[in-house]
């Protein structure tokens, strides 16, 4: 009986982690190497990102460890696009989900979906040095619409 009681919380945790897009990249301290959503009060600077069909401009961005960035994202393409920040393995999982359910709501942390002509923003804090990816995970967009964020030491 006590083994059964121990298994229930473990199974619930397992189900929760399997439905979280960034679960595989979260360490023991509940931190993702990709960073996390930031607060507007902590924004150090704004970076404009333009979405056009099949690319982001710029597609390479440099930030500093600990910096909080407001990404101002503008869709100048002819199609709906998303911008999702994360580790590449996690972005691939989301892209696979979008192929199965392209109209699914964007519930992931660090994603914005824009229709042509729309503008939005993501505020993101970069906790760790390294390379972080961003992409449009919508069907047919993922292979071309990608970029890199280089997080450099303070």
User: What is the second-level CATH architecture?
Assistant: Sandwich
Question: What strand order characterises the main sheet?
Answer: 1-8-5-2-3
Q: Pairing-aware structural class of the strands and helices?
A: alpha+beta
Tell the overall outline.
globular
Assembly type of the chains comes to single chain
**CATH domain class name:** Mainly Beta
Strand content: 35-45%
Number of strands: 10
What's the CATH topology name?
Immunoglobulin-like
Average of per-residue pLDDT values: 83
Give the termini distance in whole angstroms.
Answer: 53 Å
Unreliable stretches, pLDDT < 50, 5 or more residues?
A: 1-30
Your description of this structure?
- The protein is α+β, with helices and mostly antiparallel strands.
- The chain has a single domain (2-152), classed as Cupredoxins -  blue copper proteins (Immunoglobulin-like), CATH 2.60.40.420.
- It is 19% helix and 36% strand.
- It is built from 2 helices and 10 strands; from the N terminus they run αββββββαββββ.
- It has helices at residues 2-18, 88-100; strands at residues 36-37, 45-52, 55-57, 60-64, 68-75, 81-86, 111-114, 119-125, 130-135, 146-152.
- A hairpin with a 2-residue loop joins strand 2 and strand 3 (55-57).
- The radius of gyration is 17 Å and the shape is globular.
């Amino acid at each position: 009986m006590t083994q059964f009681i121990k298994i229930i919380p473990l199974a619930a945790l397992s189900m929760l982690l399997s439905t979280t897009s960034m679960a595989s990249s979260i360490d023991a301290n509940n931190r993702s190497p990709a960073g996390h959503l930031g607060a507007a009060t902590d924004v150090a600077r704004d970076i404009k990102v333009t979405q056009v069909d099949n690319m982001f401009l710029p597609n390479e961005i440099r930030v500093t460890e600990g910096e909080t960035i407001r990404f101002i994202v503008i869709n100048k393409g002819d199609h709906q696009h998303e911008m999702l920040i994360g580790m590449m393995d996690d972005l691939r999982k989301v892209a696979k989900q979008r192929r199965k359910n392209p109209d699914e709501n964007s519930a992931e942390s660090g994603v914005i979906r824009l229709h042509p002509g729309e503008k939005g923003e993501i505020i993101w804090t970069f906790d760790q040095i390294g390379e972080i990816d961003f992409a449009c995970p919508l069907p047919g967009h993922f292979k071309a619409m990608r970029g890199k964020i280089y997080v450099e030491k303070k």
